[in-house]
Amino acid sequence: MESAQPQNPLYERYASREMAALFSAENRFRQWRRLWIALAECESELGLPITREQLEALRRAAPEIDLSRVAELERQTRHDVVAHLRHFAEQAARHEPTAGGILHLGATSAFITDNTDVLLERAALDLLEQRLAAAARETWDKSALTVRFLWRMVTGDVSTKNISGPINIAQYAGLTATEGFTYYLGFLALVSISLAILNLLPVPVLDGGQVVFQLAEMAKGAPLSAEAQLLGQKVGIAMLVALMGFAFYNDISRLFG
How would you class 134 by CB atoms within 10 Å of its CB: exposed for 0-12, middle for 13-18, buried for 19 or more? Predict the structure, then answer.
């Protein structure tokens, strides 16, 4: 029984290490023990004859999970929760002989398994929220960097020789791939963000150009003529061809320069 392995192959394929560890068997079983301790603490507060020594024995035994012993007990009981319960009671008894007797009082297996699922899902959503917030911040920072770079290029603060085409992009993709998959994905994300920003430029045939057309029609109160739209498309295509040609020129200059 592999304690650190996720219980679903989807976690192995697609989840981060943190998410996979969260849903691992080991973490799930530790959560079972935390629930048993919380149950005993609440019952003690409500007046059941549970001593501090018994609770302390549970806390001390909680980290000491022996999955080989659990597997042995499960073969005998044919019940995973009961096997873990007996194992926990055995370990707690080493610290306080009567500690095992206060475990699982008035509870069912569903109390342990269902509440564990809820707690794990809540922790997973918290982790997902953190990752989404971090991704949003990173995307915003990279987008702002791209916009500032384009503006500095327009004002002449940055040389247009920094414009790269497919050749240079492929070279950098190869370099980042040799550094590791994470670096490669980061580079692809940066390229994707840059292309998204460029797509919003007010150039016909791009999405930004379509927004300009829509604004022009709103201001005019009528659709643009077919001739105006065709002219805009021709100008946009000419600008893109010129930009691609310039990018190829820079790539070839770097390659043979």
Answer: exposed
Same domain, 121 and 164: no
If asked whether residues 178 and 100 sit together in one domain, one would say: no
Assess whether 26 and 119 both reside in one domain: yes
Q: Which residue has the tokens 């998204």?
A: 196
Residue 187 lies in a domain: yes
181 membership: H or E segment, kind and range: helix 181-199
Letter for the amino acid at 240?
Answer: L
Please answer whether residues 103 and 111 qualify as being in contact, where contact means their C-beta atoms are separated by less than 8 angstroms.
no
Q: What angle do CA 235, 239, 241 make, to 5 degrees?
A: 115
Closest CA to 121 of 46, 31, 50: 31
At residue 248, the pLDDT reads: 84
Instruction: Note whether 99 and 57 are within 8 A (CB).
Output: yes
**pLDDT tens digit string along 158-185?**
787 778 888 888 888 899 989 888 888 8
Residue 1 inside a domain? The answer is no
| Per-residue DSSP letter, 24 | B
Indicate if 121 and 175 belong to the same structural domain. no
pLDDT band at 62 (very low <50, low <70, confident <90, very high): very high
Q: Which domain holds residue 244?
A: 159-256
Sign of the torsion angle spanned by Cα atoms 22, 23, 27, 31: positive
Residue 155 to residue 59: CA distance in whole angstroms: 66
> How many domains does the chain divide into?
2
Whole-structure pTM over 0.90, yes or no? no
